[in-house]
Amino acid sequence: MKNLNLGFVAIAIISSFTFTGCSKTSHAAIKDQSNRKLAPDFSLKDATGKTVKLSDLRGNVVLLNFWATWCGPCQIEIPWFMDFQKEYKDRKFEVLGVSMDDDGWTSVKPYIAQRKINYPIVIGTEQTSTLYGGVEALPTTFLIDRSGRIAAMHMGLISKSEYKDEIVKLLDGDGGIIQEPVKSSSLFSTGGPALFFAN
After folding, report:
1. Closest C-alpha among 41, 44, 62 to residue 121
2. pLDDT over threshold 70, residue 66
3. Tell me, what's the pLDDT at 173?
4. pLDDT band at 28, cuts 50/70/90?
5. pLDDT score of 50 more than 90
6. What domains does the chain contain, in order, with CATH numbers?
7. What is the SS3 assignment for 125-143?
């Protein structure tokens, strides 16, 4: 009976872990440059009202993070991303956060102020989500090379060291040759990720 109860507890913990979006992904290697697709462009306003356009960051390695204030693993990652922004800013590296909070700035502005987030945050829209395959699993993070092409994607929580390894690899010479890439209106031709997490 004791073992049976432990089994139910384990199942409950796993179910809760998955439902809240706290999903551990397997490590996705940096894609070969010939296999990278252009990151769909978008223009959204940050907390100050300034328009942030993804294509304006071309020439930088970009960590594009879809997140929400209620997402537990997102809260774990954000301090890492703040560290990366501080450490690699002078090497043409940028973090851009896209909040998927339903109430928008109502939740996000206090969150930014409380945690003193040092990189731009914008509020994502349904259109933005659709461009990136229908972002329904949070966090979802894309690493984009200097030519604006997606070099890696992660759904769920991976380690800080894995992110750092990929960022350094892109900064140290696998960041892509800056050129005019082929146009692309959407990253995926069909529906989004197979993982679904609700608030």
Report:
1. 44
2. yes
3. 82
4. low
5. yes
6. 33-174 (3.40.30.10)
7. CHHHHHHCCCCCCCCEEEE
